[in-house]
Amino acid sequence: MKKIILLSAVLCYSYITAQIKTPQPSPTATIIQKIGISNVTIDYSRPGVKKREIFGGLVAYNEMWRTGANKATKITFEENFIFGGVKVKKGSYSLFTIPGKKEWNILLNQETELWGPAKYNEENEVVRITVSPKETKDFTESFTIDFGNFKSFSAVLSLKWANTLVNIEIESMAAKKVQNNFKELLTKGPSANDFYNGAKFFADNTSEHELALEWINVAIEKKPNAFWMMYHKARILSILGNDKEAVIFAEKTISIASEAEDDFGYTFRCKNLINDIKSK
Asked: Helix 266-278 crosses helix 227-239 at what angle (to 10 degrees)?
């Protein structure tokens, strides 16, 4: 009888403890970042320093690392991207690294179910690049992956832990797709705003600045007193090197914007543009 009671108690305890959730030593995290017009998603675990020596200690130099803890870090591209200068097709990849004192190897592998380097197969690699780590004054307790230095179609992916920072440039390959979408849209009865948005995009993301000027002119013809459009025409003129005409048009924009109930900051922008041109 006592054995039955003891067994029941053990089973009951096991059941109860199985229901209790405890904190993960290296919590999982997911970061989703829009770059260009598509998302980049990273799933990883975040180990802590916990008073340990990290690189050259816990994480040995010149040995492959899963870039986190537990399951290898996974990066998913919604569209085709350029990762550290290498073209990568849309899809998911494991992110491995080989840390070194003066340089790191950054690896993307098609196998995403790895928990460490033991079964790593170089035949499945799609990227192997070399970058230089930086020593930082800022201390990062928990291993962190994030994005920064955003441009229209690019960003910098950063790996941070302890006093080490590693940056990798990534770029969306969707710019051409957006260009083609605008060109197609502007043949189908477009509005003034369609021409306006197309002009801004082509001015900032392509070398087709004459086309941008053509489109902003059409937009302004459709909305003659749209001072926000006029500002961008002045800006495009300056991009094309027509600074004298750009200043004249910026001054005209200021006079129209000043009559509006709210100029939404475009008077200030025009004055800055004029000052920038005159300081060349």
From this structure: 20
107 - beta bridge partners? 96, 128
Instruction: Assess whether 112 and 222 both reside in one domain.
Output: no
Residue 252: CATH number of its domain: 1.25.40.10
Residue of 111, 122, 127 lying closest to 168 (CA atoms):
127
Phi first, then psi: what are they for 136, rounded to 5°? Answer: -115, 155
Q: How many domains does the chain have?
A: 2
C-alpha–C-alpha distance, residues 231 and 210, integer Å = 16
Place 100 in a pLDDT band, splitting at 50, 70 and 90. very high
Same domain, 27 and 110: yes
Q: How do residues 176-190 score in pLDDT, each as one tens digit?
A: 889 899 999 988 889
Q: What's the pLDDT band for 20 if we cut at 50, 70, 90?
A: confident
156 contacts 148 by C-beta, under 8 angstroms: yes
